[in-house]
Description:
alpha/beta
Amino acid sequence: MPVHKTSVLVLDCAEPEALAEFYANLLGAEVRRGVDPDFIEVTGAEGIRLAARRDHGFPPPSRPRPDDSLQARLHILVPQDAMDEAEREAVGHGARPVDTKDNGGPRDVRLYSDPAGHTFTLVAREGRTAD
Length: 131
């Protein structure tokens, strides 16, 4: 029988408390602090599970990214008719727009950076809700 596993996306940063609070506010999730002050989890409904980990000397990701860099990007699925509202929420919590042209319709994708410089996108999902 396989060992039970779970996963968490870990984002390196200089200030894990601030980054965890940003994503908890953006995603309607909660911050969970453990014994390690350098590792803070963000959990919520729908299986949200992220963590912010302190990396001393963290170099923020750059955009556009260098050709030889490896970077991940979080996609946040949003109902198609709520993209503008989701964008206002993201910016209100501290996200910085990178490429937010309104593509319209089911292919609307808007790119931001979080307070630590990681990129994430709001992605319209026609006929789906965030619930």
